[in-house]
Amino acid sequence: MKLTVYGAGAFGFALAHYLGLKFTSDDSVQVLLYGRDADLISRIRTARVHPIHYPTVPLPMRVKVTEDEEEAVKGADLLILCVPAQSVREASRSIAELIDPKATILNTAKGLELGSCKRLSVVIREELVPKGFEGDIAAFSGGTIASEMIMGAALGAEVACENPETARRLQMLLSSATLRIYANTDIIGVEYAGAFKNVIAIGAGISDGLNNPHGTKTLLVSRASAEVKRLALRLGAKEHTFSAESQAWANDLWMSCTGNTRNRFFGELIGRGLSVEEALKVMRRERKLVEGYYTAKAAYQLARRCGVETPIIDAIYSVLYLGEDPREAMRRLMSRSPKFLGEGAG
Predict the structure, then answer these.
(1) Are residues 181 and 194 in the same domain?
(2) Same domain, 23 and 68
């Protein structure tokens, strides 16, 4: 079996490291790490470490490192896309002539395509199917930040695919003593969960930057969760994916809003008083892409299309794209009319 990790950023390297360790003694499995930056790949291949993100973590010798896209893609049984959400269409177009028509593609990016607001599996399918691709497309999501995966922490995630046999096969292939995988056929829900939680994490970070107490942040997170759940269900997601036990939702959301994550930190910088552009510059200097920044616009647009009320998502959008002061946005949210939940509402 040939497994290719397509993308040599922080998460791609961490996942290749994980797979290299998992299949160290299994000669039937070939693991490749592909990146298009020839200089970076040369340095990884020579030093067996990631010079930017993990300069002290050696890549298992089981992993072959290559900048040759044809070598990486052709004959791959499983291609794991580890590129930013806004690069998924370009990557899909690039592999369309190379990928085996019956291969499985597992996407790890958590976001929506800017402009179209499309889920990433839809983007992949649009580029590959016209070229004859007939394989399954799946999504990987959960509380699995690269820095924790590479240290061998016990983590949980979900793989989602409309084909239950493929979801189960990926579950068995990727699970280990350090990574517990749950299978799900609700790829719509898993993709929206991964995308929308990044927006909420930015809001949580803004609250942290404003030095609000923990209860203020948990209020924001809980009510924003209700908003995006309503929106996701309207868009076709299943209820179970947005439950408290879901790895793609609750686990990822808690981790993103409380852990050392880029979306939360980006929001914290804004809460401290940096402008959005200044905060983005800080993130770029650290070579950290903020997927939630782009998804906030897509979530706002989808809510308008669907007629779903999302006051907290709207407020985050207003801070990020309209220049509203975060404190004013918080005051506006807290002054909204009271809500009645459960029986007797309305």
Answers:
(1) no
(2) yes
Determine which one of 22, 110, 118, 197 is catalytic. 197
**Residue 252 belongs to domain spanning:** 189-334
CATH number for 272: 1.10.1040.10
140, 106 Cβ separation under 8 angstroms: yes
pLDDT averaged per 10 residues, the chain (length 346): 97 97 95 97 97 96 97 98 97 98 98 96 98 98 94 96 98 97 98 98 98 96 96 98 96 95 97 97 93 97 97 98 96 87 60
Note if 281 is an active site residue: no
Per-residue model confidence (pLDDT) at position 344? 55
